[in-house]
């Protein structure tokens, strides 16, 4: 592996003009494909095979007029007043005139008026689904009834769910990353080149993703996740390889040789670090959830592209940059002078100092670290999962205003209406089954009301609107849904299924919860095997996996405390706490495991490299922390900044994902990898690198440390050596 990447690095450096031209051409082709073939994203979260999805599929066939998107217009009279049919009629009529509206139901006909007569709900049915609603239709919908004087009119429902867009808040993370890179490298050229490398990888990945969006159904969060990860790992991988390249330059190697050896050593670590991320993301497919599979594969493809960019385009750009990747004071003509100039910052730097502190206090560090992370994980036992609803949207947003006004006039249950779909083959049998089902549901605890059935043209399918007493994401509503499903199984000769946004959310959460243990076992198992190949050790991969469990526990605990329980929620701009989005745990585990293994590979590969080259086991740990600790620290700060930029988005899903990833990176990099890992490695000593001989003979030698590279292609220095010029 090391020799192959060494040759690739030298080739890219030598043919830098052609390599750059090829990447620019690829970017242009992908960009053209995105412009020509991109399609809309979707905000649907569905899982084929669940009861709620089967019911929706049945509606699309048997009751298509009820399968379109819905909106709700909430009308309220001034305090102390009452609504009249004449006062509400203009709102209903204007709603009927909105393009694409099939029907707008007068609340006095549907009896959707509060008991005190002050509030009313106008139900609006569109002909197309949510993904078919245009911005012009949304605008027209929000204008319906807005000009009616003397009434408060709010517009909500599923068509008002916004699609998250990349905005100025993400630039904050990139800006912080640029500052950290300048401070780390001491060179504007090196910092700019690293950012450029990441942006090319992200640009290619995003363009390819949008080029496929017309044939693959993308959720609205998939491109955001791909952008988030692509930026973070792209900067990290370029940072790692560039740091090693600078190190070789300062040892007196010429530019081409330095680029080749950086690709052969640090590049090997990048390949396997990227492989763990790709495995973790692609492994999301085992959950059997299409939208999650697409999110994982989209992000995995972007990460794979960033690895390829780091191994080919980066060496080429290094060739153009010349010795300007070094700080001005280190741009010496004599390689030995440059090395001497850097030496004081090496063995006596902060990284080496921290490594020695951890070595001396390894037992207290392990005890305090594990106990502290365990304490942070305590809130996990109260974690609740659900798909987000309007109650968690930003205060003042149209959907949130409509939700709050509906709750004020009717109760939270009216925001989480359920739909019972009854089919019995013939009109007579369907009518009988609908009445029987209505009676069974009415007698269920937690049900507030059941509306009269609506029947399709053939009379073979009936819909029953069910109003629970509690809100869409309440645990009591989940109990009500499960009890309803148990009761309606008694309906003779009829097919009864419960659906609606609330039921879909419950089914999604349950399916993901069931898939989580399988996914965790698969991803951790495959990654432990991969790390065993990389480090040729049994204990190092197991230590890495156990450290990850501490990371994920603390991350979930902090996220639950803020987003669910509301502690310090104002710091992240969260208006209303609520359950975590149902796919957050499995997504977070996948992403954080890959990123945690990135830091593990970056840090421990240097320990392994020094140990293989003859250093004492404990000294190699200090050397690994000393040489790569600064890089890992910079990478973690950059990743945290990139993820943290997404916390400023209004969308609660993206906000929670960005926050959890930022916290997870901080915990894993600074507490687990930079503190607990060196402490444990000091305790283990030589035993950390133990591998049974039978296993050693079976495992292929991947040579991530570059030992074979050093043996077969020895370093040849020329002194004095002139560093490569652009």
Keywords:
single chain, Alpha-Beta Plaits, 3 domains, five-stranded antiparallel β-sheet, 726 residues, disordered C terminus, four-stranded antiparallel β-sheet, elongated, alpha+beta
Question: Can you put this structure into words, describing what you see?
Answer:
62% of the residues lie in helices and 7% in strands. With 726 residues, the protein is of the alpha+beta class.
Give the secondary structure arrangement, pairings included:
Elements: H1 2-14, H2 16-37, H3 51-62, E1 70-76, H4 85-96, E2 101-105, H5 107-110, E3 119-126, H6 135-143, E4 152-156, H7 169-185, H8 188-211, H9 222-250, H10 255-282, H11 290-321, H12 335-342, H13 344-347, H14 350-360, H15 362-376, E5 385-386, H16 398-410, E6 418-423, H17 427-442, E7 447-450, E8 454-455, E9 461-468, H18 475-488, E10 495-499, H19 501-535, H20 539-564, E11 580-581, H21 584-612, H22 617-645, H23 652-684, H24 693-698, H25 707-712
Parallel strand pairs: 5-11
Antiparallel strand pairs: 1-3, 1-4, 2-3, 6-9, 6-10, 7-9, 8-9
Helix pairs in contact: 1-2, 1-10, 1-11, 2-8, 2-11, 7-8, 7-9, 7-22, 8-9, 8-11, 9-10, 9-11, 9-22, 10-11, 10-19, 10-21, 14-22, 15-20, 15-23, 19-20, 19-21, 20-21, 20-23, 21-22, 21-23, 22-23
């Amino acid at each position: 592996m090391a020799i192959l990447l060494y040759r690739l690095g030298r080739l890219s450096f030598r043919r830098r003009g052609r390599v750059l031209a090829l990447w620019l051409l690829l970017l242009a082709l992908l960009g053209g494909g995105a412009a020509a073939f991109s399609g809309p994203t979707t905000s649907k979260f569905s899982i084929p095979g669940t009861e709620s999805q089967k019911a929706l599929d049945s509606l699309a066939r048997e009751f298509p007029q009820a399968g379109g998107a819905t909106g709700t217009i909430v009308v309220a009279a001034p305090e102390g007043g009452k609504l009249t049919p004449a006062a509400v009629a203009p709102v209903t009529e204007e709603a009927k005139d909105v393009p694409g509206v099939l029907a707008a139901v007068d609340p006095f006909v549907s009896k959707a008026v509060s008991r005190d007569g002050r509030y009313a709900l106008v139900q609006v049915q569109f002909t197309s689904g949510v993904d078919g609603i245009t911005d012009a239709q949304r605008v027209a919908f929000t204008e319906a009834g807005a000009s009616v004087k003397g009434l408060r009119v709010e517009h909500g429902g599923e068509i008002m769910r916004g699609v998250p867009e990349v905005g100025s808040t993400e630039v904050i993370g990139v800006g912080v990353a640029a500052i950290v890179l300048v401070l780390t490298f001491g060179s504007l050229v090196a910092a700019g080149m690293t950012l450029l490398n990441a942006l090319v990888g992200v640009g290619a990945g995003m363009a390819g993703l949008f080029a496929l969006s017309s044939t693959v159904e993308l959720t609205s969060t998939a491109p955001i996740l791909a952008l988030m990860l692509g930026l973070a790992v792209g900067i990290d991988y370029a940072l790692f390889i560039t740091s090693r390249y600078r190190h070789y330059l300062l040892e007196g190697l010429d530019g081409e040789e330095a680029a080749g050896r950086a690709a052969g050593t640090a590049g090997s670590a990048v390949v396997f670090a990227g492989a763990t991320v790709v495995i973790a993301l692609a492994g999301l497919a085992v959950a059997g959830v299409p939208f999650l599979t697409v999110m994982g594969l989209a992000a995995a493809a972007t990460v794979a592209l960033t690895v390829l960019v780091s191994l080919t385009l980066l060496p080429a750009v290094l060739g153009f940059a010349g010795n300007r990747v070094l700080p001005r004071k280190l741009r010496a003509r004599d390689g030995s002078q440059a090395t001497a100039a850097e030496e004081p910052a090496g063995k006596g730097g902060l990284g080496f100092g921290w490594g020695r502190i951890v070595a001396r206090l390894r037992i207290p560090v392990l005890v305090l670290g594990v106990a502290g992370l365990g304490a942070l994980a305590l809130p996990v036992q109260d974690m609740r999962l659900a798909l987000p609803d309007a109650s968690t949207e930003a205060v003042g947003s149209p959907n949130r205003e409509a939700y709050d006004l509906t709750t004020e006039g009717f109760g939270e249950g009216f925001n989480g209406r359920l739909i019972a779909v009854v089919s019995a083959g013939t009109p007579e049998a369907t009518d009988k089954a609908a009445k029987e089902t209505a009676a069974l549901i009415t007698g269920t605890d937690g049900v507030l009301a059941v509306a009269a059935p609506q029947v399709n043209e053939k009379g073979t399918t009936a819909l029953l609107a069910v109003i629970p007493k509690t809100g869409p994401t309440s645990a009591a509503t989940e109990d009500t849904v499960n009890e309803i499903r148990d009761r309606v199984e008694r309906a003779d000769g009829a097919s009864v299924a419960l659906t609606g946004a609330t039921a879909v959310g419950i089914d999604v959460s349950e399916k993901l919860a069931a898939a989580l243990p399988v996914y965790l076992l698969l991803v951790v198992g495959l990654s432990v095997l991969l790390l065993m190949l990389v480090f040729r050790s049994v204990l190092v991969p197991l230590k890495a996996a156990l450290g990850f469990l501490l990371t994920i526990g603390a991350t979930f605990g902090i996220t639950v405390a803020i987003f669910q329980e509301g502690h310090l929620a104002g710091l992240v701009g969260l208006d209303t706490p609520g359950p975590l989005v149902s796919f957050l745990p499995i997504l977070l585990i996948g992403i954080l495991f890959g990123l945690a293994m990135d830091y593990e590979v970056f840090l421990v590969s240097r320990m392994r490299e020094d140990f293989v080259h003859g250093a004492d086991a404990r000294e190699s740990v200090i050397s690994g922390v000393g040489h790569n600790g600064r890089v890992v620290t910079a990478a973690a700060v950059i990743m945290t900044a990139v993820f943290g930029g997404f916390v400023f988005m209004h969308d609660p899903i993206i906000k929670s994902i960005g926050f959890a990833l930022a916290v997870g990176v901080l915990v894993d990099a600074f507490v687990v990898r930079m503190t607990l890992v060196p402490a444990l490695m000091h305790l283990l000593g030589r035993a950390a690198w133990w591998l049974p001989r039978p296993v050693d003979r079976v495992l292929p030698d991947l040579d991530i440390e570059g030992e074979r590279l050093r043996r077969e292609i020895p370093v040849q220095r020329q002194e004095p050596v002139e560093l490569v010029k652009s």
